[in-house]
Amino acid sequence: MISPKKQNIFIAVALALLFTLFCAASLNFMSFVQQSLWDNAVKHVMESTARAANALQRNAVKDLELLRMLAQDLEQGMSSDEQRIIGKLQTHLSGTGSLAALIFKDGTGYTDTGLAVTLTPEERKLVQGLNKQGGMLPPYRNRGSGRRTLTIYTPVKFPDGREAHLFKGYNVESLYAAYALSFYNNTGFAYVTLPGGEIIMRSLHPASNKTFTSLFDIINGNGNRPEVIEAFRDSLKNGKTGVAVFNDADGENVFCYVPMPDMEGWYLVSIIPNAVIMKEANAIILRTLLLCGLLFAGLLAVFFIYRRLKRGYQREIRALAFTDTLTGIRNFTKFKIDGDALLQAPDAPHYAVLTLDILNFQVVNEVLGYNIGDALLQRLALLLGELARPGALTARVNGDHFVVLLPYDKKQDLTAYCDALLRALNGYARSQAGSYHIELRTGICCAEDGDAATGINDLLDRANIALKAIKAKGAQPWNFYDSGMRVRILREKELEMRMGRALRDGEFQIHIQPKYRLDSLELAGGEALVRWQSPDHGFLPPAEFIPLFEKNRFIIQLDQYVFTAVCRLLRQWLDAGVAPCPLAVNVSRVQFYTLDFVETYIGIKKRYDIPDGLLELEFTESIFIENVELLRTAVQELRQAGFSCAIDDFGAGYSSLNILKDLPVDVLKLDGVFFRSLKSNGRDKVVIQNIVHMAGELQMATVAEGVETLEQVNFLKDTNCDMVQGYVFARPMPAEKFTERLRNSGDTC
């Protein structure tokens, strides 16, 4: 059993481990939530960036198509007439919120407002190098308006051979407003860059640095890893869409970049501080962390409440588990735990275990009532402790069975305790309404006499052996254990382990003791007796195993085995032409009370086809006294089936003459106890003479068993006893020898 200190250490370690696991799980969960929220926020920014990029591209493509349509219209005219060109510009492009112009290769041209334009040499050189298919120019500062302008263009070739370009310009600031180049509640902003990262358009957002000319001016350094920067550079060059995170002087920023293939492969790059993206996520994480903390605190609270309640319940359960509810003293389980502890103490005194119960306690319950019985048990429990020396343990096992572990100096202390207990308990019983008398039986085993007993259980077993010995002998109310008792118990266990195999292996042998007629001294029959011939232990006397078999009910199998063997022997005689001799077989008390006793014996007789009159069943006198009606019915059925029935051992117990008149038996067997004192006691002769005479009057044959002297034979002959069985004529002999005697001696029955 784990000690409370070790339990507390285990719980502390378990809680620490649980807390660690909980923290790890919480951190993992928060990391997952943080990443999920970040991914969702970045996805939103990416979608906004893509929408703005698509809007920019759609507008540029639409206006470029419009320019091309105008170019086609101009190309279908007859000449490059000034008024016609201005008219077309005004018709198609005026009022669109942008600037429009047509510039010839010589650097002259017209605006949609009718103004003549002459390009500077640098501007003329730029125009001459334009793409022949048309396209888009990076923003520049317009000389006329002074504003940064984004321009699209397409070539025009007039019928008269003159070449020119149509231009349409947009105010960059108006594009910012029109296409929402600020993101995430105006906390983020955007750049339009070339594939090499050069910034060509920048947001008006305050955080949009006006001094940087390239994205890489922003991200170079500031702790950004070179390999990450190079991966970003490669993505821009290869027209990929993606997300990157870089540090700048103000902190960590998220770059969402989307290519615009219809705008010369330019990029729209949104930049949002990572702290802004994580602001909402951090709030959710904080709430999640708080919730996890509250949850863990709640679990701890539940755990400690549960532990507190559990301790209370354990105390109650321990009280229930270790206390007898009726008497309030220890129960048997607690007694054994405490008893072992006392016996193993290094300075333990001499101890003895007493196991005791009240004789016929059930009668007290049934006659006086269960409340009186319970009160008696409570008083006994109280007296067990009050009369014991300090250091004793008392407990109730069950019912009226109690045990005591008692220190003592000499064995007289133990018997004095038993006597004092009995006196005090009877004093209580006499003082109650319906005064009654109590008898206690106590088995005692001293630790010093315990045959190397190693603990309380061994001493209890031996004390119980001593208690059972009292019940068997019915002597004094207490009994000390001795080693012989245990030897007998072990011997009985050994016999029980071997009895089944012995029966199967034929170790039980049939012996027959002849019976002789007194008038002619001729053989009158025999009694079948059983002997156990063990190959390991030799001959075992019946007194060693018959009482045991009656107790464990193995006698039922043995009785049927003997009866079957006798029937088989009679059938062998009949088949061999040997004049059969009536044989008597004992029926044990246990066998008689089996439900199918009569049917079984009649069935075996029929199986071997035994003629009537050859089988006699002997019933002990005690059976006749216990249940006369049941026996009368059984005897009548057996006699009708061809059996003779006998009363065995008459006179060995408390004989009743009533059974002689009430039962229709054929034979009365007088026990040998009658004949042992014939010389010294003339009264015995009178009793025997009258019993024999009365049996004759009741048409019963009489058999005297256990006859050992000629004097006894002569006396029995004078009393007109019919038959004698005893050593004076013959001892029991094996069935084979009895058969030989029938064959060779000419004896007949």
TrEMBL record:
Keyword Membrane present in the record's keywords: the answer is yes
**Which residue intervals define the domain GGDEF in the entry?**
349-483
Any Pfam family: GGDEF
Q: Does the keyword Kinase apply?
A: no
Recorded protein name is: Diguanylate cyclase
SMART domains according to UniProt = EAL, GGDEF
Q: Which GO terms describe its molecular function?
A: cyclic-guanylate-specific phosphodiesterase activity
Which residues fall in a coiled-coil region? none
Ranges annotated as spanning the membrane: 284-306
Q: Which organism is it from?
A: Desulfovibrio fairfieldensis
Record domain EAL: where: 492-746
InterPro entries assigned to the protein according to its UniProt record, in alphabetical order: Cyclic-di-GMP_PDE-like (IPR050706), EAL_dom (IPR001633), EAL_sf (IPR035919), GGDEF_dom (IPR000160), Nucleotide_cyclase (IPR029787), Rev_trsase/Diguanyl_cyclase (IPR043128)
Alphabetically ordered keywords of this record: Membrane, Transmembrane, Transmembrane helix
